[in-house]
Structure formats: C-alpha cells, structure tokens
Write a structure and sequence with these properties.
Elements: E1 2-7, H1 13-24, E2 27-30, H2 31-37, E3 41-45, E4 50-53, H3 55-63, E5 69-72, E6 83-88, H4 91-100, H5 105-116, H6 119-128, E7 132-136, H7 142-153
Parallel strand pairs: 1-5, 1-6, 2-5, 6-7
Antiparallel strand pairs: 3-4
Amino acid sequence: MKISISGTPGTGKSTVARILAKDINYALLDLNEFAKSHKLALGTDKARNAVIVDVPALKKEVSQMEGNIILEGHLAHFCGADIFIILRANPKELAKRMKTKGWKEEKIRENVEAEILNICLNEAVELHGKKVFEIDTSKKSPHEVADIIKEIIAEEKREKYAPGKVDWTGYIR
C-alpha cells in the first residue's frame, strides 16, 4: 500500500510521516529529497528559493515502486497512492510555524494564501476523488495526527475526514 501525505508547507507532513512510518513499519519516501537525489529537478525558482521538480518524471519513478510506502511532501498528491492524506492548518498557526522556522514574510504569505484557498486539497480531490482525506493539524500533536491516519487506513471514521470539513475562507481579506 502507498499512502500519500501532502499539504501546504508547515502543516506537519514530515513529522507526522516519520511517526506514522515507524508506527506501522512502512518505508518513508521524502519526495523532495528523492527528486533531488534522482536528478528530477528542472531547475531552481530563485524568487521562491525552491527546486522545480519534474512532476511527470517523479510520478513515473514512484509508480514503479512496490511495497508499503509513505510518500511525503507537498507534491505527494500528484503521485499514485491508495490513500491521500492532506494535512491542513489554521492560517494563523501556519504563519506562526513558518516564522519559527525562519521563513521570509513573502514565502509565509504565499503559503498561507495557498492554505486558505485549499490548493493542495483541491488538486488532490480533482485527481483522486474519494481516496482523499483531510486532517486539521492546528491543535493536534503529530502523534494524534498519525493515529487519525491509522484509523483512516483501517477504514474507520473516514467520513469525519472527508474533504470539505476544513474551511479557512473566513481569513480572506
């Protein structure tokens, strides 16, 4: 089984994915590092200080992998998987997390806007429909989020985490 954990930067993907992989004994694939190490980068977006990943090539590489794998990264929802988890965070909490990590104001604003507009969630739902679930990480520990994902894997409480339950549009000014 492949499990995709995606979302706006700062929602907790890396931490949750590490915990979950350990708890359920799955391999963990950091897609950003994988793309860099397998020369799947098309270049660098200097304005955003980000690597531009060849998404079709990444998708092809991941599709050839077998076994129990957690795909982690903000591009994970573009790759094939059995379940797609989109982590969400309250825009104020997200900005606070990014500031703590030393992100620049412009990058923080861009990512908060992406979160408010449901960019990752909308892309995932468009591509994968009913295999997509969303979890608000704002007031949950990474261990609590990992436990929720385990429930989703076990096909428990899936309706509670169906897309459309998290709404940050009240933050639009």
